[in-house]
Design brief:
Length: 466
């Protein structure tokens, strides 16, 4: 049976042949807000006691933030700018946790002025800064836990060791600060649910220590790093540990900081091959030498093809699918567009491509968009967003805000927008309302003429598919 194409490829294979993109080399994402909604529904089913506070750093696209806000999630912010971003879309301070254990003093003061009270700490110096900048903060002590089961380990940089917990709690008590809970992070992409059990048990011990010092803790933050797949296994271990150490009648509220779980599979990236060259790879015995690539033809060596694509190193994997062409595959290197020799995306065996071909990359919604750069003057990828009418209605999203330069000229004729978007051939648009924030001031509900099509295409777009 022929495997079904990932949803992102279905949209993109319609978009790329479109007249608008003929001759275009600009990379672009297609993001599916339905996927974000479905992940939220799954989270509620598998972890009903755990309220998600989405990690803004993972993907700060405003459409994603608005969708999650409409679904009632909280937000994990790590800086003043991230707090500004989520509050600009109407998120209230009680829905924000400032989950960074080492914060600039000015950022602490800003959080105080905005009423963002929940924040983490893991050292005495941070307590002193909080005393000066936000003495009424509601604090969570982040503890270092075993992260050996995870691909990305964080406990070396963040978290108080269990041996220092007692002294930190006593110091917070002396400073008359309000410690409300405990947080931890088992590391990103954890592969074994036992890590959560261990961490939740350790957090329970800290709750007991805090009680003896005089604190009444009622908040547990089990951190982030959840993969976009495999939540079933992790949730079983988490739920069992919560039932044992923090049962539902304990009065302890439980939150988490998922990021990639919500967005990783929601985005697919299209990269244009704008250059290529053939080289000859040396035998295996000579790999790693300064002559690993012999840039001359002949000598009976294996052909290697190097491709240069329109976006760089923040791409994790280019997957081969069973339905892919059975053409001969060649050892290939995919480079980003910049002059940086470190901008080497990956080595892969793949069919031969031509200049102008497109490479599609699935599962790139996490830690890509916020980290993209225009180094060397290369354009950041455009973002196209799709959502079905059912989800749109359920989210009750009336308008979509985008930020444009203050000198942007806005004109009329909404019908032109509909006709132009039909040309994109991703989805059939019934109607569109775009509310533009001409930063930093006036809000306008507008539509565009032909002269503004280019502008419209290069901002985030919401629509209804049929």
């Amino acid at each position: 049976m022929k495997p079904q194409l990932p949803w992102g490829r279905l949209y993109i294979t319609k978009l790329i042949p479109n007249n608008y993109l003929q001759g275009s080399e600009v990379p672009f994402y297609v993001g599916n807000l339905d996927s974000v909604f479905e992940k939220h529904q799954k989270w509620q089913t598998l972890l009903p006691r755990v309220t998600p506070f989405y990690a803004v750093k993972c993907n700060n696209n405003l459409a994603v933030l608005r969708t999650l806000s409409a679904l009632g999630t909280g937000f994990d912010c790590a800086s003043k700018r991230e707090i500004e971003m989520v509050m600009s879309i109407g998120v209230t301070p009680d829905k924000i946790i400032y989950a960074h254990t080492t914060k600039p003093q000015s950022h602490i003061r800003y959080a105080c002025t905005q009423g963002v009270d929940m924040m983490t700490f893991d050292n005495e110096e941070e307590l002193l800064k909080i005393t000066r900048g936000h003495p009424n903060a509601k604090l969570l002590l982040r503890i270092a836990v075993d992260d050996s089961k995870s691909q990305v380990k964080l406990s070396t940089k963040f978290g108080a060791t269990l041996g220092t917990v007692g002294s930190l709690l006593k110091r917070a008590h002396e400073l008359d600060l309000d410690v409300k809970g405990v947080s931890f992070h088992v590391g990103s992409l954890c592969t074994d649910g036992v890590a959560y059990r261990w961490a939740i048990e350790e957090a329970h011990h800290v709750f007991e220590q805090a009680r003896l010092i005089g604190f009444h803790l009622d908040l547990l933050d089990i951190g982030g790093g959840f993969s976009g797949h495999g939540l079933e296994m992790m949730s079983k271990a988490i739920n069992e540990a919560l039932d044992e150490f923090f049962p539902a009648d304990s009065g302890v509220r439980v939150i988490a900081e998922p990021g990639r779980y919500f967005v990783d599979s929601a985005f697919t990236l299209a990269l244009n091959v704008f250059a290529r060259k053939k080289v000859w790879s040396l035998p295996i015995s000579q790999k790693g030498s300064s002559k690993e690539l012999l840039l001359s033809y002949g000598n009976g060596l294996d052909t290697m093809i190097m491709y240069y694509v329109t976006s760089g190193i923040y791409i994790y994997s280019i997957q081969n699918y069973p339905h892919a062409t059975k053409e001969p595959r060649y050892q290939s290197v995919i480079w980003g567009p910049t002059c940086d020799s470190a901008d080497r995306i990956m080595d892969v065996w793949m069919p031969e491509l031509n200049i102008g071909d497109w490479i599609l990359v699935d599962n790139v919604g996490a830690y890509t968009i916020p980290m993209s750069t225009d180094f060397n003057g290369f354009e950041k990828p455009t973002i196209y967003l799709v959502v079905t009418p059912q989800i749109w209605k359920m989210l009750n999203l009336k308008v979509y805000f985008v930020n444009l330069p203050s000198d942007t000229k806005l004109t009329i004729h909404q019908s032109c927008v509909r006709e132009h978007l039909k040309l994109l051939n991703i989805i059939s648009w019934q109607r569109i309302i775009v509310r533009v924030v001409v930063w930093p001031g006036e809000k306008q509900t507008i539509s565009f003429t032909n002269t503004a099509f280019h502008l419209l295409i290069h901002v985030h777009i919401f629509g209804w598919s049929v």
